[in-house]
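Possible regression after last week's pipeline update?

I re-ran a chain I had predicted before the update to compare outputs. Posting the input and the new output here so someone can diff against the archived version. Not blocking, just want to make sure nothing changed silently.
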Amino acid sequence: MSETANEPDVQSPTAQATGAMDILQIQAILPHRYPFLLIDRVLELERRKRIVVLKNVTINEPFFAGHFPGTPIMPGVLLVEAMAQAGAVLLLTEIGGNENQLVVFTGIERARFRRPVVPGDQLRIEVNVLAWRRIAGRMEGLVFVGEKKVAEAVISCAVVDRNRTTGASSESTPKAHAGNTT
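New output (post-update):
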C-alpha cells in the first residue's frame, strides 16, 4: 500500500475537465467557502456541454435556523445559486486561470420550484449549456431529489476580473450585477 493512498489527487482544474471532482478540486476552482459553497462533488463534466454535481443537504446548514424554525426548507434562491456554482465550475474549468476571475450572474429566467428541499435530501444538479462564449454563458439548471425535479432555471453569467468587482472605479464595475457573484 502506498503512503499517499489517502491523500487527495490534487490536479489542475483543466486536468479534470472531463471527469469527477472532489471538494478540494472544486475549491481550487471556485472562490466560495463555507457557508456559501453549495456544491459538494462533481459527478460528470462534459466540456462546454454539461456538468452534474451533488449537494448533500443537512440540518446543520446555517439558513435552516431561520428558514423556517420547526419546518426547515432550503431557500429557492440558494437552489439557483447552487445551479450557478455548478455552471461556474464548468465555465472556469474550460477557460483556466481562474484565480483572478469571478463568474457573476447576468440573468435568471424561468425559475421554478416544484417541491421543498429539506434536511436529508441529496440534490443532483444538472447544468446544460445553451450558449457558450469564452467569457459568458447561458445555461439550463435542473435540480433533482431522487427522480423528482425540485427546481429549474435558465442562468446567464459573465466572467469578470476580480479587481473589477472591488470598486476600483465606477467605469470598470459591471453595473447590472456588481456584487452578484455566483
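Follow-up from reviewer: compared with the archived run. The beta strands are 41-46, 50-56, 101-113, 122-133, 136-145, 148-161. Marking as no regression found.
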